[in-house]
Amino acid sequence: MVYFPVLCFFLTICVRFCAGKMDLDGPEYAKMPPVYHLDPYEECFFDPGGVYCDINFALVSDEPSALLNMIQQYSSENVIHYNHSNLDYGICITKKYKNRTEPMIDRKMTLERWLNHTFWKNYKLKTRVKDPLYCGASADEIPIDGPDIFVAVMSSIIITLNLLGSLLDFFGANCKFAKGLVSCFSLRQNWNRLVATPDQTNLPTLKNLKPINGIKVICMVFVISIHSFLPVTNYMSNTQYFESFFNNYFYYIIFNGTIIMQTFFIISGCLFVIKYCLDVEEKTANIMTALKFIFFRWLRLTLPYAFLLGFTSTWMRHLGSGPLWQFFVQRFIGNEVKDCRRNWWMHLLYVNNYFTGSECMGQTWYLAADMQLYCVSICVFVFFKSVKSRKIILTSLFLIGCLFRMWNTYYHNLDPILTMTPEQSRYLFQRDKNFIHLYVPGHTNLPACVIGLTLGYIAYTYQNHDIEKFKKYRQALWLIPLVLVGIIYTGLIFIIFRDAVSMYYMKIFFSAASVTLFDTFVAILILGCIFKIEDIYTSFLEWNGWTISSKLTYSAYLVHIGLIRYVAGTKAALIHTSFIVMLMYVLGTVTLSFAGAFVFWLVVEAPLNQIFKALIHINRKARNKNEVV
């Protein structure tokens, strides 16, 4: 294990230098038309009737063109380059048409005519404008409709209940109704719940699980950081700078780091087993037990999720304006509004990850996959009670999950690891078949779920055993982060040699082996921290600040994509990207996401969660009463 990360690193360096790729120097690169362009937005509406359009168009030629051939050859390396024959421009159509004498009837025809004139003059190329166009005028307003009003009323009710609960808590009202309202909606009470730590409980199991909080927060920060690249890799003036990142090995930790989502499936499976053993241990579990677990899990996730789903499908489109608002709101959120209103049932049933045509809250694929794996987990533990039968079923599920990954990789000719590329940053993975067929389905994430369930069972079973003899392996635990980095870097081989025939069958095997290795080492690291086999990682991950922040991770995951799209959509000009600019966007997005999550948790998630807990309490009281009778 000591030599594994070193071997992976040097192997990727060797293949990097052995592989050929097309690079252009500055003058050659400048011959290509810019991928992005924006006309001044405010000036477009100085004259009455101003119309601004965001368009996507392709470069074409009626005759042989050396420039177009160079562009197509350069763009063919789509893992490391933008598609420079597919351009996104923001154009003030009325300014371009200002000196024409004939009336402007067809916007698409007008834009294509102007583009053909400009591109033939500058590049000896022609264009083909793609549908749809995203155009807006200064007088355009989005009307408020019935769903907008309904969500506004529900939001007002929640805010009013928070104010009322906080006031009753402040003045110390003692009636039964006031106590119930205070218990759920008091900001002070919910703040106390937020800052409470497992050290203040009498459950040793919860105290042992504190390192998981640190891992959750760190992984969530990493996920938000990757997504925060959207504003700085779309509509940028120096696309060559971002493409140059793919020559820097450091950034491959980010580009191939999408595998980190596996960690959340592991943690979810681990916590499920421990909770199940604590609540159902030595009791007779049956189908009603499974249904109750599933219902309460569904209710816990859905209450805040449904609120944000309603907000996204209504008021999100009213919040901003700018040259890119049409692009990021009509192209993404506008379609998102339609999809959310049409396909809301998919989200409430947690099956949206299997409907790839929907653009509604794309980040919630994880919630759907996690809910599906939760249902599988509860069925395994309820219907198979012996240790032997559970081992057989879990082993079978693990192998089935690996076979699903290998089959999908073979059938759809996928890459073994989902990689962030320049083109995917333009479309948020919506068109990426690796994302659709390998990353988001519940069944392809079965191996992580099974490893998480196994981890939880070991952690619960051996919590009172003597583990001193295992502390001699503490040095091995210190190396696990390096091993995980090595696994991520190994995916670089399949990026460089993705078209090589010899890699075809190798990547089929690696699609299952990569997640299995990654998940196994993550589980070993978590297990070592739970049992305190070493002190460095454990003491760091047990910091109480992680415990508090981990309560915000669900809210942060829900709100961060909307925030990122808002920031991207309100840009008024092309951004000149640099490392400092990207770092500022990352830090700002992470900070604002957790700040928004803090408000959302206090006002929405925590009160609704308290209502959820009250329902569980009522159910348990009724069950205990029946048992007494």
From TrEMBL:
GO molecular function: acyltransferase activity, transferring groups other than amino-acyl groups
Stretches assigned to the Acyltransferase domain: 212-595
Record's keyword terms, sorted: Membrane, Signal, Transmembrane, Transmembrane helix
InterPro entries (alphabetical): Acyl_transf_3_dom (IPR002656), O2_lipid_transport_reg (IPR052728)
Transmembrane stretches, start-end: 149-171, 217-237, 249-274, 295-316, 365-384, 445-464, 476-497, 509-531, 552-568, 580-604
Pfam families in alphabetical order: Acyl_transf_3
Keyword field contains Transmembrane helix: yes
Name of the protein this chain belongs to: Acyltransferase 3 domain-containing protein
